[in-house]
């Protein structure tokens, strides 16, 4: 019969082995993508428009579309998620059946496949509301995709704040809203920022939902025209907007340009580097904000 110490050593070895295996697989996958893609990266590749039938195209418009779509999505989803998280954690009754139903709905929505969100966005925004394949359709669809996760992130960030701080605010004569605005939110800010940046990375790499909403084409843009009502303006919300992730999918499924493999590899490397940057930025911002708010080093 094994003694407790031996069982502990075996269990620890198994857990370390599983963790090491996951790290090796992840490192191998990232290394393979970066090894194939980084040699194809250049300033020309990152800024020039894509070419459908010729070699030498880039990902400039798709890269801009990805960041612009991300910005619009976060502008729409973050205020709603922030308000929802504050209400669910600070105001809603814990025993309310309605609130229980809302939490269940959030859990269900957060587990929906992105292709289902894309088909929903296609039927509602592209067809019913007549937005067409556009940045606006893609941004609103991604809001439905991102909102449940972002709401839960905000709620969990607020829940981590000890009730002692809420009681201290009440003892000072602050209203509940003043306590939330001046005490709770500043204390939860590092966690909220981390959740926002991580959800931004998730949105940036999304493809399935955008195939049916933002479209699979990237019309030529005039970066000297900043009138959002002009068709060729980069700021136009009603134009089709193929993103980087959709571009990668399209090249690998139906790309006919001579250098399709090189463009796909380079675009995949850029996408991976961008998502890694979002993760590193989330950790850095969380650390900086925590140090400033707590005056720690």
UniProtKB/TrEMBL annotation:
Keywords: Cell membrane, Membrane, Transmembrane, Transmembrane helix, Transport. GO terms for biological process: phosphate ion transmembrane transport. The keyword Cell membrane applies. It comes from the Bacteria. It is a multi-pass membrane protein. It holds the Pfam family BPD_transp_1. It is found in: Cell membrane. One of its GO terms (cellular component) is plasma membrane. Its main location: membrane. InterPro entries: MetI-like, MetI-like_sf, Phosphate_PstA. PROSITE patterns: ABC_TM1. GO terms for molecular function: phosphate transmembrane transporter activity. The keyword tRNA processing does not apply. The chain crosses the membrane at residues 12-35, 67-88, 100-125, 131-150, 260-282. Belongs to the binding-protein-dependent transport system permease family. CysTW subfamily. This is Phosphate transport system permease protein PstA. It comes from Weissella soli.
């Amino acid at each position: 019969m094994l003694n407790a110490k031996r069982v502990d050593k075996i269990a620890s070895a198994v857990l370390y082995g599983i963790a090491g295996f996951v790290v090796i697989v992840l490192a191998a996958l990232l290394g393979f993508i970066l090894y194939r893609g980084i040699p194809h990266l250049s300033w020309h590749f990152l800024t020039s428009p894509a070419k459908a039938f010729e070699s030498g195209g880039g990902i400039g418009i798709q890269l801009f579309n990805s960041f612009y779509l991300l910005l619009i999505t976060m502008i729409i989803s973050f205020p709603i998620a922030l308000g929802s998280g504050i209400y669910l954690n600070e105001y809603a009754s814990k025993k309310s059946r309605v609130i229980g139903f809302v939490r269940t709905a959030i859990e269900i929505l957060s587990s929906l496949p992105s292709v289902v969100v894309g088909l929903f966005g296609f039927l509602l925004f592209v067809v019913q509301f007549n937005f067409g394949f556009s940045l606006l359709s893609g941004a609103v669809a991604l809001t439905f995709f991102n909102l449940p996760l972002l709401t839960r992130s905000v709620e969990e960030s607020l829940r981590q704040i000890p009730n002692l701080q809420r009681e201290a605010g009440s003892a000072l004569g602050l209203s509940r809203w003043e306590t939330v605005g001046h005490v709770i939110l500043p204390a939860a800010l590092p966690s909220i920022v981390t959740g926002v940046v991580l959800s931004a990375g998730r949105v940036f790499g999304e493809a399935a939902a955008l195939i049916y909403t933002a479209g699979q084409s990237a019309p030529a843009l005039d970066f000297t025209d900043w009138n959002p009502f002009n068709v060729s303006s980069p700021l136009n919300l009603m134009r089709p907007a193929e993103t980087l992730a959709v571009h990668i999918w399209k090249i690998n499924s139906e790309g006919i340009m001579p250098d399709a493999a090189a463009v796909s590899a380079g675009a995949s490397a850029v996408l991976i580097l961008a998502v890694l940057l979002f993760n590193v930025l989330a950790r850095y911002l969380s650390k900086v904000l925590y140090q400033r708010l707590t005056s720690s080093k």
